# Entry
Amino acid sequence: MESLSNRKKVIEQTPMNFWERMYLPAIAKGLSITFRHMFKKKETTFYPEEEREFSKNWRGMHSLKRDEQGRERCTACGLCALSCPAEAITMIAGERKKGEEHLYREEKYAAVYEINMLRCIFCGLCEEACPKEAIYLDGPIVPADYLRKDFIYGKDKLVEEPLK
Amino acid sequence: MELALVIEKIILIVVIFGVSLGIAAYSTLAERKIAAFLQDRVGPHRAGPHGMFQPLADGLKMFLKEEIIPSQSSPILFILGPSLALFTALLGSAVIPFGENIQIGDRLVPLQVTDINVGILYIFGIVSLGVYGIMIGGWASNNKYSLMGAIRAASQNISYEIAMGLSIIALLMVTNTLSLGEIAAQQHAWQWNVIYQPLGFLIFLVCAFAECNRTPFDLPESENELVAGYHTEYSGFKLGAFLFAEYINMFVSSAVMATLYFGGYNYPGMDWVNAMLGPTWGPLVGVAVLFAKILLFIFFFMWVRWTIPRFRYDQLMNLGWKVLIPLAIANIVITGIVITVKELL
# Structure
């Protein structure tokens, strides 16, 4: 059948001549190519000591943001947990008491906020869903660990450092 | 006098044994390093400076791993397989002349464990025995992949042994002896056999790759089609024995190639060096030269591994039976004609 795109190219394959069927010249050529690679610049980045450059919109570990006055932005609405396709986020809401206004911006806040980093696929949907601009995936690579339970990150690891 | 002979042989055996194991251990590191360099990487570099202690870490890991003997296997054969592979691999270095006779005090010490007059045949016998380790291991595993790998190993080794033997015959017509010690001694200074037998060397080299199950002939353990072939079911130290045997085989075949074709411990200007350094230290330079040649061959083995992809099974058989064997026979005929013409002139 005629191809519609008309981009089909028929490649002529001539039978190999004697020199080519010996394979040895081709092998010598291949060996010289690999040998030259010995002296090329190595591509390795020595990861824990040095990090490669990330693009600006790279998604890493989550962080829960604070507002200008250092109060936690999260109001525990649960939209991030709802939008999460991997069901990595859970939270328990708490009510803000009198005298805690300097800690939490809204009247309701996340008493417990956990992300299971083994479930998370770093899609960034929680970041998009958040109406309070409280969660961003702007951290580093999530570090390796030995136990599964240690991959469930709570507020101690997720919330930003308080303002000084 | 007899006691001195026994002591000297025991020391030599222990040294060669240790050197074989040491070179085999560090070949594993060299393999990974060379693989890395050829692929623009750095390779193992965490254990010690530049990863120098990596073989120790690997060996320790092999020892500490759980040893699994599959319930459906035959346990005696399962253990016999890797033992035989390691045993036969270590036997080969007994007839290799590592240097000229060294004078210690007023004793001449030959740097060869034993100079039997059928040295080459001995090596061939040992190499043929080596395949039994793989076959028994693959068979005892009671696993389809292992059996496939074992069958491939057996047929491959048998096919390539023929071409290897034929290529050696042409060499023997030149040297007129089977003893490796004499063959090495004949290639004094620069009169290396590779000058007289370039085609024979090429055939021998290809066959050595096939006998050692190295890429492009690593069909017995092709990891992507046979899940590691004959050692699929092996773990722990028994797996280590198989892998170790491969590297020792590589060392021995490199030593054999260096001795048969590249002059062994001979090098241009050796008479001058021997006269300068005397009969005690002069031969040691020869030993160093031989080891440099061996290491070059080992490097070549690894270099080829990371350059050429694996053969298909039918291509392997084509190359062995339809190319190498006719070439080897042609080499014998040409060598015979040249020798006869030379004698007539």
In short: Chain A has a mean pLDDT of 87.
